[in-house]
Amino acid sequence: FFFKQKTAYEMLRSLVGSEMCIRDSDWTKQQFEFEDSQETKVESKLFKPLDPMIELLDANSLDLMSMMSQGKYVEFFKETVEDWRDKLRRVDAVIGVWLKVQKNWKRLVNIFLGSDDILSLIHI
User: Fold this and answer.
1) Rounded CA gap, 66 and 80, in Å?
2) pTM exceeding the 0.85 threshold for the entire prediction
3) Confidence band (pLDDT; 50, 70, 90) for 42?
C-alpha cells in the first residue's frame, strides 16, 4: 500500500517538474495576433501564423496521452488531466474553426468588399 502511494506521489512530482507538464502560464501568454492581408484588394486583418500555438497544443496533447497511459497511477491526478484534455480540445476546435473561416474569407473578401455592385446592395 505504501509503495503504491509513494509511486503515484513521485510520479506526480516528476511530471510537474519535468518537460512533460502543462503549465497555465504557457497558455496565459498565448495570444491571437493579426496582420494586414496582402492577398486581398481591400484591407482586412488575418491571423499571423499560429505555428507556436499549434506546437504547444500538440506537445501538451502528447503529454496528456502519456499521462493517461500511466494506468492506475494516473488516478491520483486524473481529474486535472481530464480538465486539461477538455481545455485543449476546445482550443483545438476554436483554432480549426477560425482557420476555416479565415480561408473562406480570403477567397470571398474581394467579392463582397471589392465589388461596388455588392457594396451598394449591402449598404456599407
Assistant:
1) 14
2) no
3) low
Residue 47 burial class via C-beta count within 10 angstroms: exposed 0-12, middle 13-18, buried 19 and up: middle
Q: For residue 36, name the pLDDT band (cuts at 50, 70, 90).
A: confident
| Number of Cβ atoms within 10 Å of the Cβ of 13 | 10
Alpha helices, DSSP H, located in 18-124: 24-28, 51-68, 78-113, 116-122
Q: Shortest CA distance to 31 belongs to which of 45, 43, 47?
A: 47
Whole-angstrom CA distances from 120 to 17, 41, 63, 107, 111 are 60, 17, 53, 20, 13
3-state secondary structure at position 78: helix
For residues 110 and 41, the answer to whether their CB atoms sit within 8 Å is yes
Q: Do residues 70 and 11 touch, judged by C-beta distance below 8 A?
A: yes
